[in-house]
Amino acid sequence: MRAQNGDQSFAHRCRVYYEDTDAGGIVYYVNYLKFMERARTERLRELGFAQSQLAGEDLLFVVHSSEARYYAPARLDDELLVSAEVIELNRVSLRFKQQVRRAADATLLCEGQFLVACVRPNSLKPRAIPETLRAAFAAVSGAGKQSKQEI
């Protein structure tokens, strides 16, 4: 399903700590991926699904592919707003569009897209996203038509 009118109101707040920065005091590029991972996890939690609970239900989400673009640096002590919007909902995968913005001035620092697959924890074989979870994502993303591409 392709999202039509995505809910862009979700944003996870986080702070840049010393451990997130390089020698120049700028956030090391790979840490933006960590911030976005946390936002996806918090998005699930906001919908009523904890990843620990899902693992107990023979379900695990894994990143299939990622793409990131960097625009401006975040620095030590910056407060960040990290969005996690579902833009595509398929039978066994979700595509997220994410942005990292500085909270103080809403400057776009980084954005990316992540294809996240639903798999069985023991075999890592694809499995269908449970209907309750699909319905929750569809409700907040305004999902519409089935996508032609599926992993």
TrEMBL record:
Example GO molecular function: fatty acyl-CoA hydrolase activity
Pfam families membership: 4HBT (PF03061)
Keywords annotated in UniProt: Hydrolase
InterPro entries to which the protein is assigned, alphabetical: 4-hydroxybenzoyl-CoA_TE, HotDog_dom_sf, Thioestr_dom, Tol-Pal_acyl-CoA_thioesterase, YbgC/YbaW
Domain Thioesterase span(s) in chain numbering: 24-105
PANTHER family on file: 4-HYDROXYBENZOYL-COA THIOESTERASE FAMILY MEMBER (PTHR31793), ACYL-COA THIOESTER HYDROLASE YBGC (PTHR31793:SF37)
Family note: Belongs to the 4-hydroxybenzoyl-CoA thioesterase family.
Name of the protein this chain belongs to: Tol-pal system-associated acyl-CoA thioesterase
